[in-house]
């Protein structure tokens, strides 16, 4: 069975081709070509990608990304579709899932939802399971600065406590797993998530995002 990260990678590329290089994304000011350049640089040019986490090298990263974004669009799409280079640890299935499943899903939705597309009517269970694993692993770090406690709830599963209740209370984020992933990654504007809890706690939480 093709692993979910690969399926999502190909789906992202298909949507990119459908919409074209100049279509907007949620990662403003990047257009589709710029976002694809980011994905390729991230996994094929670690010498340039270091600027993502080292601000002093940010200009070098931006220049490299702009250069890649200027490639012929078909070449750029093919580079992303082909996946990590042969020397990358991400060629190994479990590493690819850990490094790229969330990245491909979130950026795919960055393209889709910036262009008026609704949430997909259905998701492959393998994708949902992989995203749920990622969500459980990262929720504590994602919400550790929240002024209130945070729990995540999706159908058919026990709540995941990302942060224990504080003196200011707690909230519960309720949604299918893909929407929770988008919310946790900062896409609050487009994520279809219900926030349950006392009014004061909800207000404090939303103000902190």
Automatic annotation (TrEMBL):
Q: Which residues form a coiled coil?
A: none
Q: Kindly give the InterPro entries that the UniProt entry links to this protein.
A: CHP03085, DinB/YfiT-like, Maleyloyr_isom
Highest taxon, organism lineage = Bacteria
The name of this protein is Mycothiol-dependent maleylpyruvate isomerase metal-binding domain-containing protein
